[in-house]
Amino acid sequence: MKMRVTLLAIVIVSVFSGCGEGKDPIGMFANEGTVPTLAFPFTPQAPVTSNKDGLILPVNISSVAVTAPVAGLVTLIEMVTGATYSITIYYNSVYSVRIAQLNVVPTIRVGEYVQAGQLLGTVSGTAQVLFSVFQNGANVCSYSYLDTTARTIVNSNLPVPCPFL
Questions:
Q1: Given pLDDT bands bounded at 50, 70 and 90, which one contains residue 64?
Q2: Contact 99, 107 (CB under 8 A)
Q3: Euclidean distance between CA atoms 65 and 75, whole angstroms
Q4: What angle do CA 31, 37, 38 make, to 5 degrees?
Q5: Helix (H, G, I), strand (E, B) or coil at 126
Q6: How many CB atoms lie within 10 A of CB 71?
Q7: Is the pLDDT assigned to residue 131 strictly greater than 70?
Q8: DSSP state, 149?
Q9: Distance, CA of 75 to chain centre
Q10: What is the pTM of this model?
Q11: Could you tell me which of 139, 133, 129, 136 has the C-alpha nearest to residue 106?
């Protein structure tokens, strides 16, 4: 009986949230129809560089807090190598943001909704953080979505921000 009530509730929510009408039900609740304007998750301590995966933000101090660049739903936290983590934030049905190479266990969990500026985790020692943006699942030039302050930081160090994309 409890299972039937649960299924009925799911169907009702789906109908009222637009499923079956070509609308993304998650997108309806997460920044629908907007393009992200991103601040860096911390102030890089040395020249910003880039590779095919995104912008590389250096950390040359003992420890730095890494914050969410946008409000959104945490959809993935994975261990990338033996000691680093990657966090993906679903901005809306078109855009996601990934912050990789955090070397301290993230302070948030999958399924949690984060606000821009909320603490995600930390990076310690001489390290770097990879900052990537995805549009419809494809990696795109992160520079195109940066706010004015972040663009100024990149422009002062890097003449061509996305040479591989």
A1: confident
A2: no
A3: 20
A4: 110
A5: coil
A6: 16
A7: yes
A8: H
A9: 9
A10: 0.77
A11: 129
Residue 12 structure tokens: 């009702």
pLDDT in tens, 20-61: 455 455 544 567 778 888 888 888 877 888 888 888 888 877
Amino acid at 76: L
For residue 92, give every residue at least 6 positions away whose Cβ sits within 8 Å of its Cβ, in sequence order, or none.
Answer: 27, 30, 31, 32, 33, 34, 72
**Domain locations in the chain?**
1-28, 31-155
User: Can you tell me which residue has the tokens 């921000």?
Assistant: 161
The helix/strand/coil state of 20 is coil
Judge whether 120 and 128 are in contact, CB under 8 Å: no
Quickly name the fold that domain 31-155 has.
Glucose Permease (Domain IIA) (2.70.70)
Q: Which residues contact 134 (CB under 8 A, 6 or more apart)?
A: 95, 96, 97, 98, 140
Total count of residues recorded for the chain: 165
